Amino acid sequence: MRVFVAGGAGAIGRQLVPQLVSRGHQVTATTTNAAKLGLLQHLGADAVVMDGLDAASVGAAVAGAQPDVIVHEMTALSAAHAGKPDFRHFDRFAANTNRLRTEGTDHLLAAAEATGVSHLVAQGFAQSFAGAQVLTEADPVQPGAGTMARTLVQGVVHVEEAVVAAGGAVLRYGALYGPGATEDQFELVRKRKFPLVGRGTGYFSWVHLEDAASATVLAVEQHATGLFNIVDDEPAPVSEWLPYLAACAGAKPPMRVPGWLARLLAGEFAVLLMTEGRGFSNAKAKRELGWRLRHPSWRQGFREELA
Question: What is the pTM of this model?
Fold first, then answer.
């Protein structure tokens, strides 16, 4: 197929493009930075500069590629786009990503309609703060308490509603790790600047970038529709995975910080993540897509990444 990957130079895109090419697909991949065109070409794609927040730019890029399917991987979370993560003001840090998930999604859907593209696969996010300890696709994402959390979830909800309504698939990726995704966090762990907040009762569902990309390839090839949780087999509380990560990194165990102090230092959203996050089940993706993970657990994955 002819596959158009919007955001092909991002962390997932750099895994996804070569996987698609290796399976015989013709890939057009976009970047906002002309300096990255060579990278995309090296990965095997036709490379295009596109501004996902500009409807005309998106329309022209899609029309030029004439794809069979569009993959939406646009974010603006890299240091070049958003600076260093700031959990006290994470709504500001993620503002452009929220726009790409709202305006950018609408631009891609309009371009798909204009060019007769019938299928779109989009990046979602497996993050919720209410409900069962482990959630399925039948469970809506819940933003939890606080204005910031509600602001951040707006883009995720829009992607899910708009893309599914158009007959596409939204992949709720878990917390991503792998080349280009977690080096900063791992360094904080090594320096003991990534503390365990409260009892660390918040759950995370992790997924390696390579596995997230392989699930995306399957969704493209199978013209999948609906929601899919793209996470590994082992949702786990922070109290379990953070000390393990520190050990893999050769660091001392993480310091413990009470919730009230973490709120002062890092803000309410960081405390929410560390104490109230929910895990996600990957049973549907395995069953319906035939997805098989190379890194079925963060235990194996962290150890390999930090070897």
Answer: 0.93
